[in-house]
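Hi R.,

Here are the chain sequences for the assembly we discussed:
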Amino acid sequence: MARAIAAAQLAPPPATAPPRRPGVRLRAYPQLVIGAGALLLLIVGAAIGPVLVAYGPTAADFSATLRGPSAAHVFGTDQLGRDSLSRALSGARISLLVAAGTVVLSLVGGVPLGLLSGLRRGWVASLIMRVMDGVLAFPGLILAMAIAFVLGPSVVTVIVALSIVRLPPFARVVRAQTLALGQGDYVESARALGASPARIAVTHVLPNVLSTILVQASLAAGAAIFTEASLSFLGAGVPPPTPTWGSMLHDAYPYLEVNPWQTLVPGLSIFLAVLSCNFIGDGLRDLLDPRERTRRGSGTGTWR
Amino acid sequence: MATYAIRRAIQLLALLVIVSLLTFVLMRGLLGDPVLLILGPDASVDQATVQRLRHDLLLDEPLPVQYLDWLRHASVGDFGRSLRSPITVHDALLGRLPVTLELSVEALALALLLAVPMGIQAALRPGSRLDVALAGLTVTTLSLPNFLLGILLIFVFAIRLHWLPSAGYVPLTQDPVAHLRFMVLPVMTLAAAYTGNFARFARSLMLDVLSEDYVRTARAKGLPNWIVLRRHAARNALIPLVTVVGVELAGLFGGAVITETVFSLPGVGQLLTDSVLGKDLPTVQAIVLFLTVAVVVTSFVVDLVYGVLDPRARIAYG
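And here is the predicted structure of the full complex:
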């Protein structure tokens, strides 16, 4: 055994071995590559897709309702004769808009709150965290339904509702990391040099919590797409005639027996979009913190 | 244990106050004048009636007074009258509650029953085919919206195979067999996401315990493998799973809303959806508060149970 190891150490490296390039080997993170690729495809599809399709997403044709896939309508038509491919592509725009809006809004709100309550002690910090605990206690979907109900249904209110639901996890994660970093030597020495808390937060703490924020953001994007689809499926989200994946499912569900195709298209879209966001989140976590991978095993964290 | 319980109870009270305040601010602070909502948009009533209604509903009082009044009534289960039906919100909620409870408890039981053996098996052979399959199943079920899974199950088992009904409900107390026939698909739908999640937690808890010294000691003294696993490893590993179940309760109720709507189960979730669509403010407010309080109180109980099962938790909480 020992001799074999010694022999292996003495042997020259095989000539065919490629030189190790510096940087990240993306092949080691297939989840990240697959997820990012799928998301990129979705973004491109949402950006240029609606222009390429011959039918408008809300153009009804009562002579061709509930059709299966054909040359004219690749994914068939719904109960009003609207082209499903066109509606799915327009729905992708809404889903991406809601995901981006929710992530940006909850980042803008949650990160400063987390930094503040992590760096400052006193009643303001504990009040912030108690309110965050309070918001977290609500079942997310039910709180989102209530907020959308109060503000009246529209794309903007859905984004606001989802941001309120998704903000506390950001604040909490950032606070926990900030508290841990606050014990660190370099933060201590910055403080000793007379740096203001705001300066410490921006130049010393923020760059170190960035990787955590990035992972959280991709999981939150998936959660936003998921919850928006749930709201729209229940009829409590983005109002018609705006095409969304959730409302397409809502419309198609009663015709499941006659035309199952109409549920398949929006259903698969939701599933694949959420899956790619979760893949990106898991992949980023493995990439940015390899120790985590071995400890907790693969799989998505809870975000519902 | 008493100190721990009292500390947790104080935290519980604080959280309940915050939750009720948030609900009140959201519903009454943001919505504006409930009188207009009660009377409807096209009601033509004179100003005197509006004033009297405002006075009767305490709407001319300052907001803190309104909040305390609302809280006093809500704490004894008086949520007022529904705007859409002649019965009180309290009665409507009470009538729907058993369905939601049955659905949630049955789904939770199914998820744990499947997840614990899967997680343990995966932990015993990390990197094996079963382990990889479990990881795949977890990320799949977590990304699969439950309404989609519900529709899929209905399509396969109700429409194509005609094995099970696609919608409807029979109370458990009335006819257990018929009840189960109606509940199989909804329970599977709701349980799916939690099965993967619980299994993943069981796996990582079990992995942690398997590397503990006392497991090695048990092995070293020659105990058969299954006794080591059952008595020493699994029993200790699975205690924290109790807290995970507590954490997931909020999500479980959210999932129940969707599942009930897909399968036309007459539960609290379906009532919530109907009330949101019908703009029934008192009912929406009551359900949001009720479900959230249920989540908060249940996780308090879960924490207490955990404190009893694992004395270390009492110290860790401080």
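Chain A touches chain B through 50 residues (CB under 8 Å). The CA atoms of residues 163 and 274 of chain A lie 17 Å apart.

Let me know if anything looks off.

Best,
T.
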